[in-house]
Amino acid sequence: MGVIRFTKMQGLGNDYIYVNVMECPISNPEQFSIRWSDRRKGIGSDGLIMIGKSAVADFSMRIFNADGSEARMCGNGARCVGKYLYDKGLTSKTEVKLETLSGIKILKLHLAEDGTVDTVTVNMGQGLPLKVNAGSHAAGDTLIGQTLNVGEGPTVCSAIDMGNPHLVMFVKDAEKARVSEVGPFMEHHPMFPDRANIEFVQVLDRKHIRMRVWERGSGITFACGTGACATAVASAMQGYTDADGCDVIMDGGTLTVQWNPDTKEVLMTGAAEFVFEGTVTE
Question: Among this protein's residues, is 229 annotated catalytic?
Answer without folding.
Answer: no
